[in-house]
Amino acid sequence: MWKNPAPLINKRPIFSKLPEYGFTRCEQLYRYCTDIAEGMFSLTVQVSENTAPEILILDKTLNEEYSLAYAPSATGAFVGAIHAELQSILTDIADKCFEADIFKSKQAKEVIAYIRNTYGIEAEYLWEKFPDNAIFRDHHSRKWFAALLTVEKQKIGLQEEGSIEILDLKAKPEKVALLVDGVTFLPGYHMNKKHWFTIRLDDSVASDIVATLIDESFKTIQKNSR
């Protein structure tokens, strides 16, 4: 029986990276197969666009599923070694082929995809205490050009309960002064308000405009790096 592995839960696959790792595509599925426990067992990891990642472990001698491999409570040196090897493989796959599925709004997902596809830059989650905060920075200068955050609405001046996802971007001071109106464009949240501004990711600003502002923010740090 296929199982959902803990290291891949609440994560989203980056499909472009799966073939690089060794996954092969079979219709709507990507599968990765490898031997574990010195070739005694086979591990298959299955990823699709519509279902959570799954794994299957087979005893190659008996051609039967080895269910103890899924049971964290199972004891003994042999099964313990299999657990450790399994977790090592799955953690490596998670680190190299998956990203945290933290942000839920359509525009937040668009921002992550746009920055990845345009600049080849992934979101970085730097703070263990704030797992729903991410930043994007240039590969070379390591300077930030965007921050994706989840905040309480009242902290950014909205007279509503609940949380909202926002995007902090950088611009020249004169551009920031022109943009910030306290409604559509807000002062940079937790940033230098002279150089940063905030966009609510609730479709208050059209996605094509958000993309243009991301480009301008990236260009700003490139100019400052020269």
Explain the overall architecture:
There is one protein chain. It is built from five helices and twelve strands. The protein has a five-stranded antiparallel beta sheet with strand order 2-3-4-5-6. It has a five-stranded antiparallel beta sheet with strand order 8-9-10-12-11. It has a two-stranded antiparallel ribbon with strand order 1-7. Strand 11 and strand 12 (196-200) form a beta hairpin. It is of the alpha+beta class. The relative contact order is 0.11. It folds into two domains: 6-100, no CATH class; 106-225, Aspartate Aminotransferase, domain 1 (Alpha-Beta Complex).
Short description:
The protein has 226 residues and is an alpha+beta fold.
Main traits of this protein?
single chain; 226 residues; alpha+beta; Aspartate Aminotransferase, domain 1; 2 domains; five-stranded antiparallel β-sheet; 5 helices; elongated
Classify the fold: give the CATH topology of the largest domain: Aspartate Aminotransferase, domain 1
Tally of DSSP β-strands: 12
| Biggest β-sheet strands, sense, barrel | 5 strands, antiparallel
Distance between the termini: 56 Å
Whole-number radius of gyration?
A: 22 Å
Beta-strand content: 25-35%
**Structural class estimated from helices and strands:** alpha+beta
Return the CATH class of the largest domain. Answer: Alpha Beta
CATH hierarchy: architecture of the largest domain: Alpha-Beta Complex
Mean pLDDT: 91
The low-confidence parts are: none
What's the helical proportion of residues?
Answer: 25-40%
The protein's oligomeric status is single chain
Helix and strand pattern: EHEEEEEHEHEEEHEEH
* Strand arrangement across the biggest beta sheet: 2-3-4-5-6
